[in-house]
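Bug report

Summary: structure tokens for Adenosine deaminase differ between web form and batch submission.
Environment: batch mode, default settings.
Steps: 1) Submit the sequence below via batch. 2) Compare with the web form result.

Sequence submitted:
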Amino acid sequence: MANTEIPIEAFIADMPKAELHVHLEACPTAPVLTKIAERNNLPVPADIYVLDPTDTSPPPFHDFVSFQAIFKSHLALLQTEVDFQDIALDYLTKASAENIKHVELFFGPQYHTSRGVPFPTVVGGFISAIQFAHRTLGISASLVMCIDREESVAFGMATLASAIPYRTTSSAKFASVFQRAHREGFRITCHCDVDYPFTVDHVREALTELPVDRIDHGANANESEEVINLLLAKNIGMTGCPMSNAVSSPDLKIPELLSLLRRGVKVTINCDAPGYFHAYLNKTLVTVTSNVNVTRKDLIQFQRNAFNISWISARRRDQFLQMLDEYEEKALGSAPL
């Protein structure tokens, strides 16, 4: 029998989950970033309150450009390997407490190497945190390196070259970088932010001109039958991020993500920048249920998609999917909820 009396918050909390779209540099809370600033003998930013979920002041950003300005100013505090380890371990600890079994973590090395922080310092800190979290918490994680399309192709290629030893705007101009990454054995995903000019074209372009395995954001794909059919034909998954959609859009795009899900697109739900939007994955999923059309079966399917399009071994994927199937049977039975 399905237990329909479980509050939605408890249903989500108990569900085994994967998260495929979270930016490590956008995870710090105010206490973590304050500790890092003080350790590095740097002034604590006046706008640190934006990272405090208890602060009720209006956020000091109103669009993606103003958000990026504040975000990048905070990055200047990150200087040592321990700094990067701290922000990653803080996120991984919270993710494990939310019953997240596997995460794939974006990081932007160009943010740091451009200001003199060596690539090994960045990656070394993140890897140390990932290894420690796996040993002590049981959560698995891998890194997804961002190539910034606002920078030059040459800088992108140099950044890729720095990343190769660690492997065990329009996106089309970066095709050479993506193609080389693909040849070197990296998996490829491409950000296609919502409600930007020509964003549907950007999704189409990524699907037809780049060797992508996933699309990030991309909710505007719902506006094009052609793009939906491309996603389905190529079996390409999508990492939706409702909370951060509010930066560039008047809404969270929940109906669009739900429509894509029910069309069979392997769309997922993710928290993206939890430090700035004060919502980790569980709270994000609860917010998604504010759309009355989202059912508990839909929430299960979002997570099934996440495990299916994650870049883990087939054996571990099967293990996680079995956990999810068992949870679905226990929580929902055969009820169409």
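Above is the batch result. After comparison, the two runs are identical; trailing whitespace caused the diff. The radius of gyration is 19 Å. The mean pLDDT is 89.
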